[in-house]
Design a protein that fits this description.
Number of helices: 3
Radius of gyration: 19 Å
Largest sheet: 6 strands, antiparallel, barrel
Structural class: mainly beta
CATH class of the largest domain: Mainly Beta
Strand order of the largest sheet: 1-2-5-4-3-6
Distance between the termini: 44 Å
Number of strands: 12
Shape: elongated
Strand content: 35-45%
């Protein structure tokens, strides 16, 4: 749990296998900003509320993020952490690194509007993968997935509480209805 109301808990990575014999770990980033979250001195903890760790160093090697954690000195200690989900307490008002990026917490709950401004539902979840998807609960009660790209979601205004979809047939309804 976050330390206080001014922070939010963010999943930042999943520990994979050990790399080498000196305690270095492979980490699957679960954040769009791994270089920001795995800087030396960053304080992380296991999602299950267990162990707290400090990042001693990180680097990219052959497309993989390798992380050294303080107190993890050998391969055996690294292997014991395999599968652990790491979280960080992040200031609630910390902006993303890029101006046109959004935190999941900024998107979930937004009213979804059609191109003409008609309310059409709410964002209930953001699914991450090769393509980020907005999971939308429509006003008709259906759940739809919309790729989160500017061509389909041209306007996002978390301060005003909405996002607007492009005028593209089939985004929120079945075309054969």
């Amino acid at each position: 749990m976050p330390e206080d109301q001014s922070t939010v808990e963010v999943r930042v990575g999943r520990i994979g296998r050990a790399h080498g014999i000196r305690g270095e770990l492979t980490v699957e980033p679960l954040t769009d900003e791994p270089d920001r979250r795995f800087t030396p001195g960053a304080e992380l903890r296991a999602e299950d509320g267990g162990r707290r760790v400090a990042v001693a160093g990180s680097r990219w090697h052959s497309g993989r993020l390798l992380v050294r954690l303080a107190g993890v000195e050998d391969r055996n200690a690294a292997e014991e952490l395999r599968g652990t989900i790491l979280v960080a307490d992040v200031p609630a008002d910390e902006p993303p690194a890029e101006a046109d990026e959004y935190w999941d917490r900024d998107l979930v709950g937004l009213e979804v509007r059609l191109a003409d401004g008609t309310p059409a539902g709410r964002v209930t979840r953001v699914q991450h993968g090769a393509q980020d998807l907005l999971e939308i609960r429509t006003t008709a009660g259906a759940t739809r997935l919309v790729p989160f790209v500017t061509a389909l979601v041209p306007e996002v205004d978390p301060a005003a509480g909405f996002c607007r979809l492009a005028d593209v047939a089939g985004l929120l309804e079945d075309l054969d209805d």
